[in-house]
Design goal:
Elements lengths: L2 E5 L4 H12 L3 E6 L14 E3 L5 H11 L3 E4 L6 H6 L1 H22 L3 E7 L22 H20 L2 E7 L1 E3 L17 H11 L3 E4 L11 E2 L1 E3 H16 L5 E5 L5 E2 H12 L5 E4 L8 E2 L4 H7 L8 H17 L1
Parallel strand pairs: 1-2, 1-4, 2-3, 4-5, 5-6, 6-11, 7-10, 8-13, 9-14
Antiparallel strand pairs: 9-12
Length: 325
């Protein structure tokens, strides 16, 4: 059993990871300012409402809890928003991470798992994407993650802080029996937007139907949030056992088009999804699929729940409970 601090643990992926850590016997504390997370995702005795910028409080918390490792989720994640207010993303995602690293240094904590993103690759020259492909972000959001990954490299070299960055793609799904699922505000993820269209009758916009894909819509690598949580736990276990710093893609290795996801939603719900076609969004590549061979080989990780129908079934079960409460 280890003492783990989860930053952003009241959010979507953070809450699922904290849930799995607890189930595996770890002592988990959550640091979240609740600006985009939800209080109901965390048991009150585990939640510390604190901003990443508050270095002294983070330091005190890690000392009090005798923290062994940190899993760092606390970031803003909307690509579109980052292009409108880039300063917000650099302040929170980069400045907040620096504050956390300073606190870890003060508290003597030397293990970190970092929630990174496939957005660091931008418009990849080939798919599936491998970890040795260059950083070419197309948004302030992607750039903020690149900056933190580079900082972590220097912290490893000169401060002995070991870290693993997980670059993942389209997290989705839910753990409906645990009351956990997607509740972003504003919502930008495809599957909840498809559910919203069913519920409200307002058509969801499909951006572009003229890509070089089987049905003209973008292909993305959809990974069940619980598979992703498992990858974070394997990464922290690896570091706690003395493993070296590294970066891994976390994805399934296969993709689905937007229309294939829409049809899966219609099959699971038994209802038609109203939609309209819009123009392509700037910077949207036709296909983004991960090669996660390195993660599977090194950390013995397997995506067990990431078939699109299973993802949609779990997400729909959570959506029905969410709307009813």
């Amino acid at each position: 059993m280890a003492n783990i601090l989860v930053t952003g643990g009241a959010g979507y992926i953070g809450s699922h990871t904290a849930h799995q850590l607890i189930a595996r016997g770890h002592n988990v504390q959550v640091a979240d300012n609740l600006s985009r997370g939800h209080r109901h995702n965390v048991a009150p005795e585990r939640l510390h409402v604190v901003d990443l910028a508050d270095t002294p409080r983070l330091t005190a918390l890690m000392r009090e809890q005798q923290t062994d490792a940190v899993i760092h989720f606390a970031a803003y994640i909307a690509v579109g928003e980052s292009t409108k207010v880039p300063e917000l993303y650099f302040t929170n995602n980069v400045g907040g991470s620096l504050s956390l690293l300073n606190a870890m240094t003060e508290a003597g904590v030397r293990r970190l798992v970092f929630s990174s993103t496939a957005a660091v690759y931008g418009m990849p020259a080939r798919v599936p994407i491998t970890e040795d492909m260059p950083f070419e972000p197309l948004s302030p959001y992607g750039e903020s993650k690149v900056m933190v990954e580079k900082i972590l490299g220097w912290m490893d070299q000169f401060r002995g802080l070991r870290s693993i960055a997980l670059r993942y793609f389209n997290a989705c799904g839910a753990e409906p029996d645990s009351g956990l699922g997607e509740e972003h505000e504003p919502e930008t993820h495809l599957i909840p937007l498809l559910f919203r269209a069913i519920r409200t009758g307002q058509p969801v916009t499909i951006f572009g139907d003229d890509y070089d894909t089987p049905d003209g819509t973008c292909i993305r690598d959809y990974i069940h949030v619980s598979d992703l949580a498992d990858a974070h736990i394997l990464a922290v276990d690896h570091l706690l056992k003395g493993g070296a710093s590294d970066a891994f893609n976390a994805g399934t290795g296969s993709g689905f088009t937007v229309m294939e996801v829409l049809r899966a939603v219609e099959e699971v719900t038994g209802r038609k999804v109203p939609y309209s076609l819009g123009p392509r969004r700037d910077g949207d590549p036709a296909t983004l699929v991960a090669d996660s061979t390195k993660l599977q080989r090194t950390l013995k990780w397997t995506p067990r729940r990431s078939h699109i129908k299973a993802i949609v079934q779990d997400a729909w079960a959570f959506e029905q409970k969410r709307v009813a409460r």
